[in-house]
């Protein structure tokens, strides 16, 4: 029996769009024969989308859901090839099913998630259900990423621009009422707009700070070649602090009141509701970030499909 290598699994994934474990099993069942493995996956309904798997799916939506008790929440990005399909009711209904699946799931990574039984039809896996949707909709689609938060505090979500950006916030809250949820929704809007990288300063690694300091040092030296190092060092400290304020949520100027930072705003809310409210964690997904978008003439694409 031929040994199944990681390279063979990777190649089969690229050919079919099927999950890693399904590809590994297909290669084992077919003695490493790539063509037979593709047929095996097609027969199992896992490669129905194989012809579309090479197309770039960089449009799509981010969707969130929070449980009724506010103790857990999920966020998912599902991509399509075109914005037209991303706005389609069937696609959006499917994405709502995916995020509900994430909320109910204990999967820690995408492969485990894709191998799960699909909640809307237990005869299918999540991967098979995706493949079926691709066949019906007629475009390559991809469940790109997901995250689930479970807490003893409260989870609040926010969707911006019809699914272009999604935010989940986990907060510690001694009091949970409408005023607290509204305040956290305001902070989620801040995260969507200003894209901080951290909640607070102590989350930033020394390695990152050292790296930024070196960059700022070279910048300052280039801009002020005649100034002594003692002056440049003070300039660097000032610039680094300004940069870190932009990176850290609680240090950012609060968009609804520039006289406050987000941290001061939450302190104000805590006093008003009679209990401490603090952001512990946030997740921000922006549709298609980091993905290469394929530029195509839409009229030509329609003409091709009609032929």
**Secondary-structure element order, N to C:** HHHEEHHHHEEEHHHHEH
Beta strand count: 6
Percentage of residues in DSSP E strands: 15-25%
What is the residue-mean pLDDT, rounded to a whole number?
88
Q: Could you say which overall geometry the principal axes of the C-alpha atoms support? A: globular
**Structural category:** alpha+beta
Major beta sheet summary: 3 strands, antiparallel
- The first-level CATH class of one domain is given as Alpha Beta
Gyration radius, to the nearest Å?
24 Å
Low-confidence stretches: none
Query: Total helix count?
Result: 12
User: What is the second-level CATH architecture of one domain?
Assistant: 2-Layer Sandwich
* CATH fold-level topology of one domain: Tetrahydropterin Synthase, Chain A
Spatially, the strands of the biggest sheet line up as 1-2-3
**Helical amount among residues, as a percent range?**
40-55%
Taking the alpha carbons of the first and last residues, their distance comes to 44 Å
What is the fourth-level CATH superfamily of one domain?
Elongation factor Ts, dimerisation domain
Pfam families: EF_TS
Family: Belongs to the EF-Ts family.
GO molecular function: translation elongation factor activity
Subcellular location: Cytoplasm
């Amino acid at each position: 029996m031929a040994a199944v290598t990681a390279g063979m699994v990777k190649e089969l994934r690229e050919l079919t769009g099927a999950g890693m474990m399904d590809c590994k099993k297909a290669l084992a069942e077919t003695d490493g024969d790539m063509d037979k493995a593709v047929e095996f996956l097609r027969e199992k309904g896992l490669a129905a989308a194989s012809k579309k798997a090479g197309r770039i799916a960089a449009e799509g939506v981010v969707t969130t859901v929070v449980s009724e008790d506010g103790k857990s929440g999920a966020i998912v990005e599902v991509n399509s090839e075109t914005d037209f399909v991303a706005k389609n009711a069937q696609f959006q209904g499917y994405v709502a099913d995916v995020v509900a699946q994430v909320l109910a799931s204990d999967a820690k990574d995408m492969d485990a998630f894709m191998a799960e039984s699909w909640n809307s039809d237990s005869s299918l896996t999540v991967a098979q259900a995706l493949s079926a949707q691709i066949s019906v909709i007629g475009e390559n689609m991809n469940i790109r990423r997901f995250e689930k938060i479970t807490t003893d505090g409260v989870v609040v979500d926010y969707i911006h621009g019809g699914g272009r950006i999604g935010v989940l916030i986990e907060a510690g809250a001694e009091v949970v009422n409408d005023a607290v949820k509204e305040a956290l929704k305001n902070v989620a809007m801040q995260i969507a707009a200003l894209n901080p990288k951290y909640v607070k300063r102590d989350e930033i690694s020394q390695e990152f700070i050292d790296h930024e300091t070196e960059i700022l040092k070279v910048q300052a030296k280039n801009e002020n070649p005649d100034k002594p190092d003692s002056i440049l060092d003070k300039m660097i400290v000032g610039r680094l602090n300004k940069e870190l304020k932009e990176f850290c949520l609680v240090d950012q100027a609060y968009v609804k009141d520039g006289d406050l930072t987000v941290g001061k705003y939450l302190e104000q809310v805590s006093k008003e509701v009679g209990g401490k409210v603090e952001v512990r964690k946030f997740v921000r997904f922006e549709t298609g970030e980091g993905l290469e978008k394929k530029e195509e003439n839409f009229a030509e694409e329609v003409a091709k499909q009609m032929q």
